[in-house]
Every structure is written in C-alpha cells, then in structure tokens.
Design goal:
23 strands; five-stranded antiparallel sheet; alpha+beta; globular; seven-stranded mixed sheet
C-alpha cells in the first residue's frame, strides 16, 4: 500500500486510542511443523505456538528454491486461459496435449451443466472430450500464461471442486511469486523506500513458506488475494524496484528461535501494532506483540498515511441494516434470526485502544463479536470492512435509545506485525531492512534459507 496524504492532526496521541492467518509440514526437504498444527492436535504450544516436540526439531536449509501453488481464481464454472505466444494444455501428469494453441484468445476450461468433468472450449464453440482433471496450461514460447485475464509466470492448473466450480492455481517458483506480491503490496513508493521493499520481500517470503501445504484440501498453498498476500501475477516493468528487492533478498526469511515466524503485516498501524492473540484466534507469540510506532523526535512513523486517522458514522437505521446484513456470518443466531437492533456497545478493549469485543443487542438476543471480526460487523453493503479495530466509541442516545454511532479511529488493517507505511517512513529516514524487521518483529533473526 502506498502512503496517502498526511491526515489532519486531530489527535494529540494515538496510544491508547482509549474508549471504554497452518501448515502440517514444509515438505520440500525440511521438517518444520507450523504452530497452528500443534494447536489443532491439542499439543501444548510453546511461547511462539510450537509444541514441545516441535521445539526440539532443527530447521534445515532448503537445497533449492521451492515451488508454490497460488489460488488465483475460484467459484465459477468457466475460466478463460490464454497466452500471447504458443501454449498447450494437457491433463496434469500426462504429456499428451488436449490442445496446442497459437496465441488465439478466447479459450476456456468449462464444466457443463450436469457433468462432473472438465472440457476445453475453443473460441468457435468446439468442445474437447471430458477430462477428470486437473488440466494444466503451459507456455511453449516463454510468454506468461493468462488466467481470467491476468498474466502469470509458471503454469496454471485448473481443477474441478466437489461443489461443481473450478479453481485455477498458478504453479510458480517462490521467488517469481514474490515479485508479484511485493509489487502489489507496497506499490511503487520510490527509491527512498528500497529498504522497506527489502523488508516486505523477507516478510512475504516467510509468510508464504510458513503456509506451504496449509490448504491442501483446496488444492493450493496460499490465496492470491488479501486473504493471504495480494498477488498481481507477472510484475509490470515499472515495478523494477520491487523485483530488485526480491532478488536482493533471495532465500532470506525471518526466524524466531530457529523457526519460521508468522510474518503478518498490514498497511497502517495508527501508532501502535497489535498483539496477535488479541486480534486472531491464535496463541501469543513474542515477536507479534504490541510495538509502538512513535518516532524518537515525536509523531509517528505511519502518520503520513491517509488512514492514520479516520471517522465512520451511522444513523440508528443504518446500524440496523448493517447488523441484519453482517451479524449472521459472525455468531450463531436463534431460530428467530437477527431481529431488530436495540443497542450496540463496546464491551472491552486493549490498553492501546483496539476493540476486543462488541456487544450487540437485538430483539432476539445478546451477541458478542470479538477481535478482528468486529471489522466485518461494520462492513458496508459492498463488503468493505472497517479500517481497523482501533477506535474511540462515540454513541449518541436519547435516554437509553441509540440514535447514532461514530467511530473515531486510527490505522488500516489488522494491526499485527509490520506496519507497511511505517516501514517506508523508517526506510526514508535511513533505516536498513534488517533494522525495520527487528523493530516490528522483536527477537527475530534474518537468515538465508536457500
């Protein structure tokens, strides 16, 4: 995310703002089990989420760059494929082509109604025979493969899900994937932010490696969206700084006590990062604690973000519609459903001013919405969630009746780990990427894994 315009200095301080992301194993030559795996099996985790057994396992270096599987399209019954050059499509594991295409646009992998297999459809309507799949598209001339209109390095694999929809997976070397992540995550901030780009590359690499194998049931390792890391596929020539950052840090990762960390990051912390256990359903981790983003000379590193300070307001009628729309996805409801909104209040918050729980009272019951899910409670009709959980809670009431609500907040994102805008400001002040990473992930080390 690029830094926006400087916000008005309406706040005299950020912290506190007061108020009342699974891996069973990295199976590419190393044996390192992720922290969430230990929690699922019921083993007692250590301070960084690892079981006692895991804490005795050494992390070995990879012998080569791994390949990652990135989910780039899903949920439809048709996915467009193509390339500006010669390409072919075949069943995965077979060398016999279904088709060889000379750059002709308009080809699609489809699942027809009442069928439980895949077909390839040519622009003129011709259909291939059925294929159980998955099918794989690869370039024969070195050009990228396009899926759903986006160009990707590597190959694209399309499979059929049990619900009858298709999933497209970009199978790509990890470093090529990272070039498309860093380009998207930090944009084009300019040469003064190179050290922030380097820090972003190390964090993104660590995040990806930590999740290798985590979504085997979906057929990929990471989503190509902000559900994991924003990924634009093939970087643009204008993204040369991001590409340079990835290549300069090739193989470098963040470790805590010799183990890959959960390298969460976000756009703007608003003055203070968040503890992971107070944000997600995760064990505490000493490297994902609350870190002040205050400058030594005063002010905050991320205050150049346009989201450093913000206000969101609703009338009682708007809040009622919001709760009816969003609450069913967040808490179990009685048979009567959501009902009409009676009141909403801040149940608890952290010392830094991030909401921990919101109490929602309707005509059918009382409900608690916790931690980062609070952002979804306040999502608008287009699905855009609240910028952060760091806010001052400002209700308006006539007697006991809620008439309006304003949230006066700071930051954008979940707040855990590295603050991207803060990292860019630190880079502009002369910090190197290792110092930036050490500030946001205390106690960690940068190590070359391959």
């Amino acid at each position: 995310m690029t830094a926006g315009a400087r916000a008005p200095a309406a706040f005299h301080s950020v912290a506190p703002l007061g108020g009342r992301f699974f891996l069973s194993a990295i199976a590419l030559g190393i044996a390192a089990v992720a922290s969430s795996s230990a929690c699922r099996t019921g083993a007692a985790p250590t301070a960084d989420g690892r079981s006692a057994e895991e804490s005795r396992r050494p992390l070995a270096a990879l012998t080569a760059e791994p390949t990652i599987r990135v989910g780039v399209a899903w949920g439809d019954t048709s996915i467009a494929l193509g390339s500006p050059d010669r390409w072919w499509i075949h069943e995965a594991g077979s060398s016999r082509p279904i088709a060889v295409v000379e750059g002709e646009p308009g080809w699609r992998v489809v699942r027809l109604p009442f069928e439980t297999s895949l077909r390839l459809r040519r622009p003129d309507g011709w259909l291939s025979q059925t294929h159980l799949g998955p099918v794989e598209a690869a370039s024969l001339g070195g050009a990228p493969i396009e899926a759903a209109g986006v160009a990707y390095p590597g190959t694209v694999e399309v499979s059929l899900r049990p619900d009858g929809t298709l999933t497209a997976v970009n199978v790509v070397p990890l470093e090529s994937y990272l070039e498309g992540v860093v380009s998207r995550e930090l944009g084009r901030p300019g040469p003064d932010a190179l050290e922030a780009q380097l820090a972003q590359a190390v964090a993104a690499r660590t995040y990806a490696l930590k999740r290798m194998g985590s979504r085997a049931d979906l057929g990929f390792d990471v989503y190509g969206t902000v559900l994991d890391q924003a990924y634009q596929g093939l970087p643009d020539p204008a993204d040369s700084l991001a590409v340079r950052a990835v290549r300069a840090t090739r193989g470098e990762v963040l470790l805590y006590n010799g183990y890959l960390i959960d390298a969460y990051y976000h756009s703007t912390c608003g003055g203070h990062t968040a503890r992971v256990e107070q944000t997600f359903d995760s064990p505490a981790a000493p490297y994902l604690t609350a870190v002040s983003d205050e400058r030594p000379e005063g002010g905050y590193w991320c205050q150049g973000s346009r989201y450093f300070r913000w206000t969101a307001s609703w009338t009682a009628e708007e809040l009622d519609a919001l709760v009816r729309r969003n609450l069913p996805a967040l808490v179990p409801l009685p048979p009567e459903g959501t009902g009409s909104l009676v009141d909403v209040d801040l149940e608890s918050s952290t010392p830094e001013g991030r909401a921990l729980a919101m109490r929602v009272i309707t005509t059918t019951g009382r409900f608690l919405v916790r931690q980062n899910a609070i952002r979804t409670l306040f999502a608008d009709s287009s699905g855009r969630i609240l910028r952060s959980t760091q806010f001052l809670f400002r209700p308006e009431r006539v007697g006991t009746r809620l008439t309006a609500l304003s949230l006066v907040g700071g930051g954008w994102g979940h707040g855990v780990g590295m603050c991207q805008v803060g990292a860019m400001a630190r880079a502009g002040a002369g910090w190197d990427y290792q110092r930036i990473l050490a500030a946001y992930y205390p106690g960690t080390d940068v190590r070359e894994l391959y």
